[in-house]
Amino acid sequence: MKIKLNNGFEIPSIGIGTWEITGHKAKESVLNALECGYKLIDTATIYRNEEQVGEAIEESGVDRDGIFVTTKIWNSDHGDVVGAFNRSLDSLKLEYVDLYLIHWPPEFGVHVDTWNIMNQLMLEGRTKSIGVSNYNIKQLEELIKKSGIVPSVNQVPISPFSVNTQFFHISHNRELINYCNEKGIVVEAYSPLTRGIELKNPALLKIAQKYDKTAAQILLRWGLQRGLVVIPKSQNKERINENFDVFDFEMHDNDMEILNSF
Questions:
Q1: How far apart are CA 103 and CA 149, in angstroms?
Q2: In the chain, where are the structural domains located?
């Protein structure tokens, strides 16, 4: 299942996250995910695992055109955007990435200069799409107004439990999702499994039992039915497979409303 981006490219609706997974574990997790059928891999410079992600892609035997690779520029690299991008490509051993993101907005304003350089990298075909991460509505509006370039993706932490509450410095509520939808910005949910915190929530488990699914699968299915891209993270092969097994059922509207109310 894929979602069309505002520049015509498509992004898989589910991917494997690699935050806090390094060394051999990162390589193994990505290999397991690709073997299971995942097509989207999410990494970042600050994760310090781009090299292992690249090794997994190379050893997987999966055609490069069939894999969607995302990486991100870190806060300290905005003075050398092209250099940071080249270092990521070198680590990944790739000729291009599918999506390049600004990892975090600055405390004040937005990274317009970085954004314009990223747009040039896209025009050169070195990244197919560009986007942002952890941006709120005000920051998105400012970036678009100053550059005239609408991000293809905004990657933010979203689950039924965070959609109406503060998560880090951003309020990821219905207004943010609606705004992105109106602008044609695909919302990509990281930490869609609440980092495991809510997986034993009684109301969530009751819905999971109804569909004979796990709590994690219900959270991921919620995101998919909301039109989000979801990128769960796991180092466990069984859980990686379990997280991908979410396309054989659909939740009823009343259950979606219960989840929305969380």
A1: 17
A2: 2-198+226-250
- Cα distance between residue 177 and residue 163, in whole Å: 9
CA distance 255 to 191: 21
Distance CA 75, CA 46 (A): 9
Residues marked active site are found at 47
As a three-state string, the secondary structure of 131-172 is EEECCCHHHHHHHHHHHCCCCCEEEEECCCCCCCCEECCEEC
Task: State pLDDT tens for residues 164-176.
Answer: 444 444 444 788 9
pTM of the model: 0.94
Q: Residue 208, Cα to own-chain centre: how many angstroms?
A: 24
The domain made up of 2-198+226-250 is a member of CATH 3.60.150.10: no
Please state, in angstroms and rounded to a whole number, the distance separating the CA atoms of residues 61 and 63.
6
In this structure, are residues 132 and 233 in contact, taking their beta carbons and an 8 Å threshold? Answer: no
Residue from 113, 104, 201 nearest 157 by CA: 104
